[in-house]
Amino acid sequence: MLSLPNLASDFAAIWLTFKLATVVTLILLLIGTPIAWWLARTRSWWKGPVGAIVALPIVLPPTVLGFYLLLVMGPQGAVGQFTEWAGIGLLPFTFWGLVVASVFYSMPFVVQPIQNAFEAIGERPLEAAATLRASPLDAFFSVAVPLAKPGFITAAILGFAHTVGEFGVVLMIGGNIPEKTRVVSVLIYDHVEALEYTQAHWLAGGMLIFSFFVLLALYSLNPSGKRK
Amino acid sequence: MSIEARFRLDYPGFTLDVDLSLPATGVTALFGHSGSGKTTLLRAIAGLERVPGGRLVFDGAVWQDDATWLPTHRRPLGYVFQEASLFPHLSVRGNLDYGMKRTWRRPAGADFQTIVDLLGIGALLDRKPDRLSGGERQRVAIARALLTQPRLLLMDEPLAALDLARKEEILPYLEQLDEVLHIPMLYVSHAPDEVARLADHIVVLDGGRALAAGPLTETLARLDLPIRLGEDAGAVFAATVAERDAEWHLARVEFDGGELWVRDSGVAVGRRVRVRILARDVSIANSRHDDVSIMNLLPATVIAHAGEDHPSAVLVQLSVGATKLLARLTRRSAQRLDLAPGREVWVQIKAVALIG
Q1: How confident is residue A225, by pLDDT bands cut at 50, 70 and 90?
Q2: Chain A residue at shortest CA distance from B46
Q3: ipTM
Q4: Angle, CA A59 vertex, CA A56 and CA A60 arms, to 5°
Q5: Which one is the CATH code of B234-240+271-355: 3.30.470.20, 2.40.160.40, 2.40.50.100, 2.40.50.90?
Q6: Which of B78, B86, B88 sits opposite A131 (nearest CB)?
Q7: What tens-digit pLDDT sequence spans chain B (356 residues)?
Q8: Hey, which residues 60-89 in chain B have their CB within 8 Å of chain A?
Q9: Contact between A129 and B98 using a beta-carbon 8 Å cutoff
Q10: B144–A contact, CB cutoff 8 A
Q11: Which residue in B85, B97, B155 has the most chain A C-beta atoms within 10 A of its own C-beta, making it the best mutation to test that interface?
């Protein structure tokens, strides 16, 4: 028997998840692009370590990342003391705490497609732009970014979808506060624990369909399979 | 007007060590085998390769020295790469506009039309680069470079990636560039026929060093040219079409020292042409022979001769009036004919190519 998910808390969680993923994706595109550009073009010794740090969330259990972020942003942590001094208060168990954690957690899924796209462009189009009077910044926006467009689309989709799908980090850093930090993945867990299988079905099925269409879009947009 | 370029680079397995003064007029070929450093030199002049301690002065303006570094985008040059390097996300028109709208002196509409017509790309303007043939792409790339109103055009083997037919398609456009626009050009090439056809001056590079530099006619006729051209050794000089013979479809061209009959290729009487005579097409006789099929027999004086790569061959330098020719003979023939310097002989020229 299926009934409609008419609980306001379900819609609040869906809205919160959407808002979180959107904010995180926008922030990641802003800070991930320069990181990807640097990683794609540097010959510095630091390329290896920085690349490894960016990629850490791919292999790290989300609880580990969440645990350290909780410590750093907590009252004893450096970031926590800074945010309190700045009058923002503590970040854990707030929406912006989730945003910060998700930015770290989804970073590799945004940086790597953009980095690969920049690397695939190579030096030549930028040299051609320079001989046509374009300054490096001008060439970045007028040549590198348009040519890397598929990488940006992939990055945005992956960053958004990965943030929607996170669970462990959210639980560690955000807890489970309705309308503040309770996102869909956590709510499904709650429903199952409370044996509310109908609600769990609606949300889980929704996530399944959402994820399928995200990946469908991804593979249809980059049919050559050069996603990563 | 001149280009002063001094660069020294030391990589493992590669050195560039040049100190050149190039004329900033006409077409100067940077000629050498691959790995000779000619592309690196061109890139250093463009500022695409940063050579610490180098010095580059173009027409009195310092582009690079110990205190100055003008980045590429602030140098008034145009650059044509070996592969056209058009921006794939822009149409042909978008590619042409890219440099044009970033140029301080924006070309007037007439200039745009002149250059589009000059390169014959008017019908391609709305296409994307991936819908163009290799030759068309290269013509768009040349037009794109010209529309920035460069004071110096740098070309890095613009024809090397093209097949013979596409080369023949583009060469006439390149020849016109110099005549119509009067932009000094540095032209990197490893192809002697391209150099013979286009260049006014030549710099011969080998192992990162400039081994010879000078006007094309004089330099190509040198016996001590440090780079062996082998089958491509020969003389290039200027001539004027004096007469066209309709019956035999031949044309008579006059040069400084005599005249030659060549196949009539439709060039109008009075036009300046460039003549290329390969050393392998020139034979020498001690007396005039009229009982041979060869049309072009000219009196000449032996200047010098030098050995060739193969021990059987010698290269003989001769003067026909003020013009120098090269002839390749066997060493045995040279000895039998006693070709000492100063000797008066007849040259028999089997083939003459009108180029450009």
Answers
A1: very low
A2: A131
A3: 0.84
A4: 75
A5: 2.40.50.100
A6: B78
A7: 789 999 998 888 888 999 999 988 889 999 988 888 999 999 999 999 999 999 999 999 999 999 999 999 999 999 999 988 999 999 999 999 999 989 876 666 668 888 898 888 999 999 999 999 988 999 999 999 999 989 999 999 998 888 888 888 888 888 888 778 888 999 999 988 889 889 999 999 988 999 888 998 888 888 777 666 777 888 899 999 999 999 999 999 999 989 999 998 888 898 888 999 999 999 999 988 888 899 899 999 999 888 877 888 889 999 999 999 999 999 999 999 999 899 999 999 998 888 86
A8: 71-74, 77-79, 81, 83, 85-89
A9: yes
A10: yes
A11: B85
* Nearest residue on chain B to A128, alpha-carbon basis: B85
Q: Does B40 touch chain A (CB under 8 A)?
A: no
DSSP alpha helix (H) spans, B52-184: 92-100, 109-118, 134-146, 164-181
Q: Count Cβ–Cβ pairs < 8 Å, chain A vs chain B.
A: 62
Cβ-Cβ contacts under 8 Å, B74 against chain A = 133
Place of tokens 């990641």: A28
Distances (CA, A) of B203 to B30, B87, B174, B226: 5, 32, 19, 11
Phi (first) and psi of residue A6, to 5 degrees: -90, 10
- Decide the pairing of beta strands B313-320 and B272-278: unpaired
B2-226 and B234-240+271-355 share one CATH topology?
Answer: no
CB A172 within 8 A of CB A67: yes
Residue B34 forms contact with A (CB below 8 Å): no
The C-alpha atoms of residue A105 and residue B90 are separated, in whole angstroms, by 36
Interface test with B, best of A126, A127, A132, A153 (most B CBs within 10 A): A132
Which two tokens mark A104?
Answer: 């770290």
Q: B81 vs A124: CB contact, 8 Å cut-off?
A: yes
Could you tell me where the beta strands, DSSP code E, fall in chain B?
A: 2-11, 14-23, 27-31, 55-58, 61-64, 77-80, 152-156, 185-189, 201-206, 209-215, 234-245, 250-255, 258-263, 272-278, 282-285, 296-307, 313-320, 323-330, 344-349, 353-355
Task: Find which of B73, B80, B83 to mutate to test the A interface (most A CBs within 10 Å of its CB).
Answer: B73
Optimal mutation site among A43, A121, A123, A133, interface B, most CBs of chain B within 10 A: A133
Chain A residue nearest residue B78, CA to CA:
A131
- For chain A, the domains span 8-221
Cα B248 from chain centre = 31
- Superfamily of structural domain B2-226: P-loop containing nucleotide triphosphate hydrolases (3.40.50.300)
According to CATH, what is the number of the domain A8-221?
1.10.3720.10
- CB contact under 8 Å between B87 and A135, yes or no, is no
- What are the residue ranges spanned by the domains of chain B? 2-226, 234-240+271-355
